[in-house]
Structure formats: structure tokens, C-alpha cells
Amino acid sequence: MTSRPLLIANATLVDPVAGSEARGSLLIKDGLIADLGPNLNTAPDGAETLDARGKVLAPGLVDARAFLGEPGSEHRESIASGSQAAAAGGVTTVVCTPETNPAIDDPAIVDYLIRRARDTAVVNVHTAAAITKGLRGEEMTEIGLLKQAGAVCFTDGAKTISNARVFLRALTYARDYGALIVHHTEDPNLAGNGVMNSGEYASRLGLGGRPIEAETIVLERDARLVRMTGSRYHAAIITNRDSLEIARRAKDQGLPFSCGTSINHLSFNETDIGDYRTYFKLAPPLRSEEERLALAEALADGLIDIVVSDHNPQDVEQKRQPFAEAGDGALGIETMLSAGLRLVHAGHLGLPKLFRAMSTRPAELLGLPGGRLEKGQPADLVLFDPDEPWVLDKKTLRSKSKNTPFDEARLQGRVFRTFVAGKTVYEYA
């Protein structure tokens, strides 16, 4: 059965492609955007009408990097719980990383996850597949078969492929299949046992540091291998000005090179670790405030292509440990939009550019529908008030885990309704 058409009237429509914000209405029919614009004032016969009362209506977020637990780590997160958290945050499409048990390195596992998502998720869930078997960085997976099974990109998650010959071979095969390689750029030997950004602050805390060079050395190598192969390449999370310069040079050379950063790296810096707060222990680590501001500037001018949640739930036992021994990672998917709006309120960029990085551009890179306010596009939408203040209580999060760095943070911007294929999957009570 098809649902009744829905007219969302009196909304502020944000179009990331046109770079515009304008008052208007949008009509949803059969799961698609049927019409939109300032002159769309009357609902067709039999349609429902929702008065947005000036709230912002934009394409739903496309999160290209999130850990959803299945298979093997359902105690940390599941596709069902992760998709509920995504919907509450205005995220309508999620790409899960392959760091599961077993790793997503076989077409049968990809097929299982697609069916599992179809049965349990309330948002669109796609899967990334591993570049190397078991994420060990030694032997390539069957990229062609995995892509045919439905994998939308290839990554070893938070593990770096140190062997340049293996990575070159992966880029070459990916090029032949038109596949996107997504790489975590941090030399594990140079990072060593470091647990936070190298520098004065790490020394004052008595913690081992992970230098910026661990990131830039791998990124520079990767850029040169991309130049050799012409393969599509995406640096998963870059965190500093030197990496931004490498990315700029690669793009200026016309290479098929893109890069992203995480919402947590745009929101926090190393001093937020404070008195050894393990929710701020991330991989790659939080950098200085100067580096954070450089990331915000690069996002505004389009050098950084996308923003990801890097959603990485950890159970209590992993985070309730001394800082050096605690697990890396933090939640991000449910707070992704509200945190991004901090950049808007601070004047770093406007709403259309934020949504281009969080919705339109990731959809383009991954070859997925959505990310646009256009006729015929899927009605994957978020309706939110960018100005409404609220305080986050981690107990209310939909994620199974609660390791959020935003606990008790004052946020501005609340999601009121999320639509997937025109169906309401989240509504703020």
C-alpha cells in the first residue's frame, strides 16, 4: 500500500547544491520528492499537510563512517539501535565499517548485513567491506565480488595498511572496478603507544603522544600512489594543517582524491581531555585548537569534502579505565547535526555548506541516492530548529553505549522529525 501524499508547508528549505535557503513547501509522494518551492501552497486532494512553522527542512544526513556492531559486537551496538540513534540525529543513511567479528571481508557477510538492515533498521544502512582479509593488511579481499554483493566502499576501518605494495595493489584493483578506497592514515609504528596528540599538553598530563607526522607520512605516500594508479581514494579522517596541504596539492593536480574529518575533531581539541576524560580518547587523537580551527576553515572552503560521525560505541569496561588503557572511540551519530550547527552559529560556514559536507557530497562519493532537495529524489529528509537550545543527557541516547563526549553539553539545534522514503522514522515528542 502507498501512503498518502504529504505536504510540508511553511518550511525553510536548505538546498546544498544551489547553496540556498528559502521559505517554501515540499510535497512527498510515493516516497519521493514530488514538488517543492516557494509557490507550492496547496496540498493535492487526499494529501496530509504538516505546518513546519519556519523550521528548516533539509536532506537527511549521510554518515559515511559508523560502527554498528554486527556481527560479533551487538553488546556495543546493533543495526537496530544504531539506526534508531541515527534517525534521532537526522541521519537517514549510514555506512557501517567492517571492524566486526568476523570482519566484513566476504560477500556472504555483506549479503547478510544487507538483509539484516532491511529487517531491523529504520534508516538506510549500507556496508563498507574490508580492503584486506581479516583487516590484517597483508592479503587483499575480493574487491570485485564484494562490490557486486553490495559493498559501497572499501576500508580497513581504523587500521592503516602499512605495506605500500599491498596498498598499491588494492588501489589498482579498485580502479578496475570503479571502487572507492577509504583509508585511515596513521603510521602505527610512528604512533607507537601514544594515546593523545604529541606536544606540551601530553607532557603535562604524563601521557604518550601520537605525532602529526604519523598521519602526514601515510597521507603523502597515499597521494603518490593515487597519482600512480588513478584510483578513487578518500582519506577517512584528517586532523591537521599539514594534512590539509597534502590534500590541497593532490586536488590541484586533478587526482581523484577526497578527504573527510569527524564531527568530534571539529568540535573538540586536546585540552578537552582535561582530567583524563576517556570519552575524548579518539583515533586519530584530538589535536590543538589551532588545528581544529584550520579544519573548520577547510570545511568552509570545500577542501574537506565530508564530515562523518566516526560513531564508535564502547562498553563501560572499555572506557572506565586509566586513560592510557581505555578503548579509542566516542559516539557521534546522534549528536552529529547539533554539533555541526555549532560551526554555523560560530560563523564558520552556512547551513547549505554544512549539509553539502554532511549529506550531498558523501552521497556523491559513495554513489548513493539522496543528499539533494530535487524532484524525483528520495524523500530522505530532516526537519529541525537550528536555534532551539537543549542539554544532552547521555541516558536518553538511543545508542546501546553511552560514551559521548557531549554528556551535559549545551547544544543549539534540535531535530524534530526525520523522514526516510517519506515515512516518519523519528519524531520529537
Which structural traits does this protein have?
single chain; 429 residues; alpha/beta; Urease, subunit C, domain 1; TIM Barrel; eight-stranded mixed beta sheet; 13 helices; 18 strands; 31% helix; globular; metal-binding; zinc; dihydroorotase activity
Describe the structure in brief.
This protein is 31% helix and 23% strand.
The tally of beta strands, per DSSP, is: 18
Number of domains: 2
Distance between the termini: 27 Å
In the predicted model, the low-confidence regions spanning at least 5 consecutive residues are none
Alpha plus pi helix count: 13
CATH architecture of the largest domain: Alpha-Beta Barrel
Percent helix, as a range, is: 25-40%
The major beta sheet can be summarized as: 8 strands, mixed
Strand content: 15-25%
Q: What integer value in Å does the Rg equal?
A: 21 Å
Task: Name the shape in a single word.
Answer: globular
Overall mean pLDDT stands at: 96
What is the CATH superfamily of the largest domain?
Metal-dependent hydrolases
**Within the CATH hierarchy, at the fold level, what is the topology of the largest domain?**
TIM Barrel
The quaternary structure here is single chain
CATH class of the largest domain: Alpha Beta
Helix and strand content put the structural class at alpha/beta
Family: Belongs to the metallo-dependent hydrolases superfamily. DHOase family. Class I DHOase subfamily.
Catalytic activity: (S)-dihydroorotate + H2O = N-carbamoyl-L-aspartate + H(+)
EC number: 3.5.2.3
InterPro entries: Amidohydro_3, DHOase, DHOase/Allantoinase_Hydrolase, DHOase_cat, Metal-dep_hydrolase_composite, Metal_Hydrolase
